[in-house]
Structures are given as structure tokens and as C-alpha cells.
Amino acid sequence: MLFSAVFLALSLPLATYGAETVLGVFIFSRHGDRTSKSTPPANLTDLGYRQIFTSGTYFRNRYIASNASSRIAGVNSDIVKQSQVTASAPLDTILMNSAQGFLQGLYPPVGSELASDTLRDGRVVQAPMNGYQLIPIQTVTSGTGSEDNPWLQSSSNCARAIASSNEYFSTSDYRDLLANTSDFYDSLTPLVNATFSPDAISYKNAYTIFDLLNVASTHNASLPTSPMFTSSTLARLRTLADHHEFNLAYNTTEPIRAIAGSTLAAQILQGLNNTISTQGKSKITIEFGAYASFLSFFGLTSLTTVPNTGDAFYGIPDYASTMTFELFTTADATPFPAVEDLRVRFLFHNGTTDEGSEPSPYPLFGQEATELKWADFKVGMNKFAIGSQEQWCKACGNSTGVCVSAAASTADTGAGDGASKDSGSGLSVAVAGVVGAMVTLAVILAAEALVMLVAGLRVVRKKKVAGSDVDSRMEDQTKGMDM
């Protein structure tokens, strides 16, 4: 069965929030519109910059502004207080630039009056760029270069996750679609043969082919108008790409395939728990990542089973999509509420968020309620959260680098079943980056050498990328496939 490519109009009604106080939020966002992965290096476009800035502005108006609709208790409205905001993104040009654009909308320039200092001698010094606000962005090594690589597990470095995703290529579902869509993909050859070799134009590369033509449909004015490329063609390409990527990102019987969602779950717990442990001093955590984390998380939290959403949570989220977790209370917020009075609400929005298209709440873990007690939310997330280096190493089956000591420490205890044993905190942003990088250092160095050999020393005309370049970047994805 093919899943719908376009997110349906989600029919769950917007909740009417009573007398409640938002104490903190965790926001996970996809990047804005970019150039194609088939023509690296990919870059954030001006359209993408606008999308992500618009989303940041929306969240400012929802949580931060003095007249915000759900203003976070005690948050600074104009001049950012660094201790209240934590932002992070992988070492990836598109994701890092998207984070910067989002933060510009979240805390825009404050103007010359607020952004000035009076020195001891009476001189007044104004900040540059009309009071542009500088917000640090933590960098994580996991996810490095993910937007230049078409293989969904390219940056996970998790051995068992990579093996699990590759198993999809041995399933009857994959084989049937590969055969049944052969004529369809062959018909697209005149549109993509400057980028893909003939044997690569198939369902095997469903996402990359869709990505190339989807970008072209937005930015390439010279794209030929013909019966080969219509809106229905693009819709079918997206449907096939959705199905292809969801099956690489999640499998009910092999949760390790969803490693991106598991580590994200731990980071969400950590972000919200920081709000609790600091008695509300830490208020906003923002993280940027790729669509694989969305798809994995959708599967792990049973969002795919939510009634009246069609196939919405099976599809690749659009650019600038967001998942938001609100920590709130209906009790007195001063002093900071007791843990038993804390609640969590999950909201999702597909694509750029603005005043005319806002996030909607959805129930997690197969439940009906869209509001969960903090304790229940924590239990649900800890069922699959990868919350420590030791658990990550054991779950992924990695035994090199920093995982050498982790493997030794768990050899006799049987610990590390993949679920976080911590009562509230998850895998830290720093650990998430270090684990992903160090456990496969040799592989990373080899990959860098391969990139230099295949791409870095070649000059490719902008209007044409040799098919052999794209094929070589698909090597991991097709490894072990019986074609």
C-alpha cells in the first residue's frame, strides 16, 4: 500500500486551553527549502530562509512576545536572556543556517534604544545591525553533512540501524514496488538522465529522484512542460518517496531502525527536565534536524495510528515543519509547581508555521488524550529513548572508539536495553554528538577520503551532474541488495 504524499487537512479540533501557564517548550524543526541533494553541496535558499524565519516569528508571537497567546512564564520578551534559550544543530550548513534564521525570528533586532550602552565617559555605543541579537547555537557532530547525503542512515553511525534499514531492500514490498514502478521511472529518464545513470532511475532511488524534481519544480524555470512532468507525476513521486523513506526510518519489529527518533526522545526529555530542574529558569530548547528524526519519532510514538489523520504521519514532513512539546500547569505557577502538577502537550505542524496555519495537538503513545501528566509522558518516552552512551553503544552493537569501554562494562551485567533508566534526563546534546562521531571515527575518515576522491576533486558543470557521482553516493543505500 502506498501512503498519501500530501498531508491531509488534519481534522482533530484545536484544543481550548483553560487557565494554564506554559513553563517551557521543546521545539524540533526541519530546515527550510534547499537545493537538491543530487547537486552537492546543498544550500539553504532564500525561500528556505524566509520559511524558517516566518516559523521563528510565529513561535515568538505564541510564546515570547509581551502579548503572546501562550506566553511562557517569566520569559524575556525583547532582549534575549541567554540562560533561558538553548539552541542546537548538527554541523551541517543547511541545518545551522536554518537555526540562525529561526532565532532571528524568535528574537529579532531590538532597535537602537534598547541595544545601546552608556560608557563611563558618557559615550553611547549602539549595537550593530539595529540591535541584532546574538544567540549561541550548540553544534552536535551527529547529523554532520546529512543534507548532502541521500542515504537516510548516512549520519546515524549506528551499525544495527544501518543493517536494519538495508533489510528493507530484501522485502517483498520493496521488490514489488521496484518492479511495478519500473515503467513509471523509465518515463522520467529525459528529465533526470543528466543526474542519474539509467540503472539508477528506479524506485531504488525514490527519494533522491523526487527531491531533484521537487526542487526543480520550485526553482527551475527552464524545466520542460510536458506530459512527462505534471502535478500528478510529482504527487506520485512524493507518495513513493514517502513510502520508501518511512520504511527506512521505522519498522515495528525492529525499533533500532528508528535510532534517530530514540535519541531525539532522550533529548526532548532532557530539555523539558532542564526546565523542571532549574525551577523554570531554562525555558526554551530548540533543535534542528533532518526528516528521518520526524519519521522515526512518528512511528515510535504511535502517531501513525491517530484517528482521522489519514496517512499524514507516514509522509516526509515539508520544509520548516515543527514538533513542539509544551510543559505547562493548571496549578499556581508561583512558586514553580510540584511535579505532579506538570503536564505535557505535543503539537505538530507540517511546513512553515504562521498565524494562518498553526500547530495542532495530537495524542502520543496510542492514547486519546492530548495532555499527559509529566510522569506518564516520561514513562512513555523512556520505553524507547536512548538515554546514555552505554545504551547507545549496546543498542547499536558498536564496539569501537568510545564504545570499547561501554561494551566491557555491560558484558556481564546485561544492562543497556535501550530505554533510559534516568528519571528525567536523556542523552545530552554533547553526548549525542560525540557518540555519533567517535564510535566510527575510522569510518568517518574513510568517508571523507571517499568524498574527496569522488566529489571534491571534480569540477562539475552546474547544469549537469554526472550520473556516476550520484550513483556512488547511493552505495551505502544499495549495499547488499539483490537486484
Mind explaining what this structure looks like?
With 483 residues, the protein is of the alpha/beta class. It has 19 helices and 10 strands. The chain has helices at 46-64, 93-106, 111-114, 128-131, 159-167, 172-180, 182-186, 189-192, 206-219, 231-249, 259-277, 291-300, 374-382, 389-396, 403-410, 429-438, 441-456, 467-473, 475-478, and strands at residues 21-29, 85-90, 116-118, 124-126, 137-140, 284-288, 322-329, 342-349, 360-361, 371-373. Strands 1, 2, 5, 6, 7, 8, 9 and 10 form an 8-stranded mixed sheet that branches. A two-stranded antiparallel sheet has the order 3-4. Residues 1-17, 412-427 and 430-483 have low confidence and may be disordered.
Shape descriptor reads globular
Largest sheet: 8 strands, mixed
By secondary-structure content and strand pairing, the structural class works out as alpha/beta
Rounded radius of gyration (Å): 23 Å
Order of helices and strands: EHEHHEEHEHHHHHHHEHEEEEHHHHHHH
Averaged pLDDT: 83
Poorly predicted ranges = 1-17, 412-427, 430-483
The overall strand count is: 10
Number of H- or I-type helical stretches: 19
| Helix amount | 25-40%
State the end-to-end distance.
Answer: 21 Å
Estimate the strand proportion. 5-15%
